[in-house]
Amino acid sequence: MVGRVLLRLAVVGALLGTVVVIGPAWYVKAVSDDRTSTVQDVPAQPVALVLGAEVYADGQPSRYLRARLDVAYELFEAGKVRAILVSGDNGTRFYNETDGMRDYLIEKGVPAAKVVGDYAGFDTYDSCVRARRIFGVSRAIVVTQSYHLPRALATCRAIGLDAWGVGDETVKTNQQMWLYGSMRELGANLKMAWDVLSQRQPTLGPRETGVDDALRA
Fold first, then answer.
1. Could you tell me which residue ranges the DUF218 domain spans (predicted)?
2. Are 215 and 82 in contact (CB under 8 A)?
3. What's the CA gap between 25 and 101, in Å, rounded?
């Protein structure tokens, strides 16, 4: 008798766990499928929002981050965006994703006046909310790896940022890292759901005019 009860509880627990994981993943896919595109085909928007990733000790972007920045550069060169907002982690004076991102784009030839840094983009949710509330971005093309893009787009749309997305796949050749990143999204989707439903407040502050200035430059 006890064994049957435990078995039923285990089955119910497994079903609930499946729903908890699959539900957010289904939602993310449903709201992002029609908003992913390529550099060539994406509708032009005022701003590209590049989400941060690891930089090395010397300030150089990691391979994944360079790939994102290369996509942003292509968007700018193709006239798809008029400004680029790079949003990264600068949580301590010893680690600064944002300056590494700005420097990389400027070295590639994007005018410095067109590249704006957000130094408190500690995660995807923070970057999207801050782009909307601190920098006044209402329409953007989000740039990241393609496995991360659905969650980023779903987050933007949930907080009122009208976003399209262009994803990088050049780093897919490292299949082990790509698979790890893809599987990590299942858990990250749960965090996204919690952030959006709870309306978690990221690090905010006064309105910044950097994007406005870049669009006028």
1. 47-163
2. yes
3. 29
Tell me the residue range of the domain where 170 lies: 2-216
The pTM assigned to this predicted structure is 0.88
Environment class of residue 21 by beta-carbon count within 10 Å: exposed (0-12), middle (13-18) or buried (19+)?
middle
Burial of 54 (0-12, 13-18, 19+ CB in 10 A): middle
CA 85 to chain centre: 12
pLDDT in tens, the chain (217 residues): 555 544 454 444 433 344 444 556 677 887 788 999 999 999 999 999 999 999 999 999 999 999 999 999 999 999 999 999 999 999 888 899 999 999 999 999 999 999 999 999 999 999 999 999 999 999 999 999 999 999 999 999 999 999 999 999 999 998 898 998 888 898 888 899 899 999 999 999 999 999 999 999 9
What is the tally of structural domains in the chain? 1
Q: Whole-angstrom distance between the N-terminal and C-terminal Cα of the chain?
A: 75
